[in-house]
Design brief:
mainly alpha; globular
Length: 361
């Protein structure tokens, strides 16, 4: 059992579970082609906390909380909870910020790009191509000595910080539940229309999050890692989970009547292909430089990785920047300052990649 999910069939199984459960969450109330989207859900959580005031995307998503806590449980059960930190925390934070900005220009993380494709959204093709391009740029830096430094063991309390934060968010969700038709409950903000108002039952969302967090921690599921390993080493282990997610999500959407092929009129998506490509290219580059996709960062944080926790917090802050500064896209197209955000993001990521290389004698 300990090594089951680390096998080839194990990673395929985990991809299949995610691919099935995400469309089911959509059927139960989550937004279209957004049964699971780490970037979108962290954006909604930032809104629920009042970090941005985009009224249509405010909700404390239980799935994200479940990812971290599910990973925490798995790590403890299999003696893999290892509190650790590395170096350059400010760099990891900034990479998280720009990863989120790129993702919100596209309107989705790598998981949602796959789910959008599995739901028939042709715009996701440009996003996935952009993701692969960004990861490819990241591999060039990796081959030339790029590193954020080695990790080292640290105090147990460091590894518990983000799980405790997520547990606190869960308490807030129960203490201040959504009141139908009301935009605020206690200290939490809630959308009364738009994607933020669409959600599966809390108990179901939390249960799915816990299960996915548990399985992903055991299997090391990572979309960025799948592309990185394929490009750098021609390894297909993680990529088989990537493909499995798309295939099973496609089949589940067909069964549930949620498949709609085309580019126009797709849920929470726009058809500006260049910016779909560029947004995910920036996100892919930031993920590669940080060492994991947004889902993987949550799972790593659950097993005690303080570096991953810093990246996660950077993404949440990046979501606030995206909506407060007009960087995020909408179904009508790229935001008023989205292009500027992409230009700055690429400049910062390229600067990080070029300057943080291990010097050889």
């Amino acid at each position: 059992m300990k090594n089951l999910f680390a096998s080839r069939w194990g990673i395929v199984l985990v991809g299949a579970v995610i691919g099935i459960l995400a469309p089911v969450l959509q059927k139960l109330g989550n937004p279209g082609n957004m049964g699971i989207c780490v970037a979108c859900m962290e954006r909604d959580m930032a809104g629920a906390l009042g970090l941005h005031r985009a009224e249509v995307v405010q909700y404390m998503r239980p799935e994200i909380i479940g990812f971290v806590l599910g990973s925490l449980v798995a790590a403890y059960l299999f003696k893999e909870f290892r509190p650790r930190v590395g170096s350059a925390p400010i760099v990891r934070f900034v990479l998280g910020v720009f990863a989120m900005i790129g993702a919100l220009v596209f309107l989705g993380c790598p998981w949602r790009a796959m789910l959008r494709l599995a739901g028939g959204d042709g715009n996701a093709i440009l996003g996935l191509l952009g993701l692969a391009f960004g990861v490819w740029i990241g591999t060039l830096f990796l081959k030339n000595g790029y590193t954020l430094g080695r990790t080292q063991s640290t105090y147990g309390s460091v590894g518990w910080i983000l799980p405790l934060i997520m547990l606190g968010f869960l308490v807030l969700l129960f203490v201040f539940p959504h009141v139908p038709g009301e935009p605020k409950s206690g200290i939490l903000f809630y959308s009364v229309k738009g994607p933020g108002s669409m959600h599966a039952p809390v108990a179901v969302s939390l249960a799915v999050g816990l299960l996915v967090g548990f399985l992903a921690q055991r299997s090391r599921f990572c979309t960025m890692g799948a592309l990185r390993d394929l490009i750098l080493f021609r390894h297909t282990h993680l990529f088989s989970g990537f493909v499995s997610l798309i295939v099973f999500a496609f089949l589940t959407n067909l069964i549930l009547g949620q498949f709609k092929a085309g580019f126009e009129g797709q849920p929470v998506a726009h058809t500006q292909h260049l910016w779909n490509f560029a947004g995910m290219a920036l996100a892919g580059l930031a993920f590669a430089l940080a060492g994991g996709c947004p889902g993987r960062q949550l799972f790593l944080a659950g097993e005690g990785d303080g570096d991953a926790a810093v990246f996660v917090l950077g993404m949440i802050v990046g979501a606030a920047f995206s909506h407060n500064f007009g960087l995020a896209s909408s179904p009508q197209g790229i935001g008023p300052h989205g292009i500027a955000g992409l230009v700055v993001g690429f400049a910062v990521c390229l600067f990080i990649g070029l300057t943080m290389r291990k010097k050889t004698a």
